[in-house]
Fold Flagellar biosynthetic protein FliQ.
Amino acid sequence: MSPETFVDVLRDSLFIVILLVSAIILPSLFVGLIVAVFQAATSINEQTLSFLPRLIVTLLALIFGGHWLVRVIMDYTIDLYQSIPQVVG
């Protein structure tokens, strides 16, 4: 395995990880920001008020995006297995 091939595989895998994590985390981040602004405007300092909406949005992102997440991981895994003869040979 040449160093260029290893770098390409590493780059692709890191891109997939960043893509999948951001698909789950970014909706939760936006909801957390909206709740934080609401809490600052109303002076409500309840911890569960910020935690529960973020949890629900994260679960909804996993429910609605789960099929896409698994498809991306499977496509990458299939591409990785199909590239084994090129890497070894």
Observations:
- Residues 3-42 form the longest helix (40 residues).
- The mean pLDDT is 91.
- The CA atoms of residues 28 and 58 lie 6 Å apart.
